[in-house]
Amino acid sequence: MENSKKRKIIITKNHLRIALFTYVVMLFAAILIYNAWEKKSVEHTVQNFSFTDQTGKTITEKDFQGRIYVADFFFTTCKSICPIMTNQMKRVVEKYKDEPTVLFLSHTVFPEHDSVNVLAEYAKNLNADASRWHFVTGNKKELYDMARKSYFLSPDSGDGGKGDFVHTQKFALVDKNSHLRGFYDGTDSIDVNKLIADIDRLLKTN
Predict the structure, then answer these.
(1) What pairs with residue 180 in β-bridges?
(2) Quick check: 130 and 144 in contact, CB under 8 A?
(3) What does the pLDDT look like over 101-123, one tens digit per residue?
């Protein structure tokens, strides 16, 4: 009876050791993966661009130099994910309304419809400050290339042609050096909270 209890104790201790070792290995692997992703993100620079915002002003990457910004893709007539994304983005905009180094860039994926006037009305309904939150339109292929090849927000492929369509709920965080720093689900308030935390971190470290 006593030997049986000892064996059970030994087996339990061995299980605990194995479980602890497995946890440490998994934690170490997670750290390595995170560091690798962080390094990859920091190494990627957002490409140059030129679009037109809701005021009719030409907006380029130079307007965001030395600034932290959040980018997303939407269209004004969207009734599914876009209203949720816009409300979440508005929450972030409000959070940093007194922080001039944080900007926001929303690209239409339906430039055939979303003209400067349409974007202006859309921004007006959101009480968006045009100096902080830019809603932009432009050449469809260039907009789609930004989504796919620069911000990596859309995993699908396409040529930006008539039948091509990008629809993504992701937000991208870009630092003051135009490096990608994170991706977030714009329809998930918890993930957007992570975005806010990462912006705070960048404000402290940049």
Answers:
(1) 174
(2) no
(3) 999 999 999 999 999 999 999 99
Which helix (H) or strand (E) element contains residue 88?
helix 81-95
C-alpha 168/C-alpha 174 separation (Å) is 17
**For residue 139, what are its two tokens?**
């050449």
Going from the C-alpha of 12 to that of each of 6, 7, 15, 37, 92, the distances in angstroms are 10, 9, 5, 37, 49
Q: In the structure encoding, which two tokens stand for residue 132, read together?
A: 């902080």
Beta bridge partners of 174: 69, 180
Cα 69 to Cα 199: distance, rounded to the nearest angstrom: 9
Q: Which residues pair with 135 in a beta bridge?
A: 106
pTM of the full structure: 0.79
87: exposed, middle or buried (Cβ count in 10 Å: 0-12, 13-18, 19+): middle
Res. 54: pLDDT tops 80: yes
Give CA–CA dist 173/206, Å, rounded. Answer: 14
Quickly tell me which residue has 């994910």 as its tokens.
81
Counted residue by residue, the chain has a size of 206
List C-alpha distances in Å: 97 to 10, 102, 131, 132, 204: 60, 8, 11, 8, 17
Name which of 44, 76, 74 is nearest 174 in CA terms: 44
For residue range 170-193, list pLDDT tens digits in order: 999 999 999 999 999 999 999 999
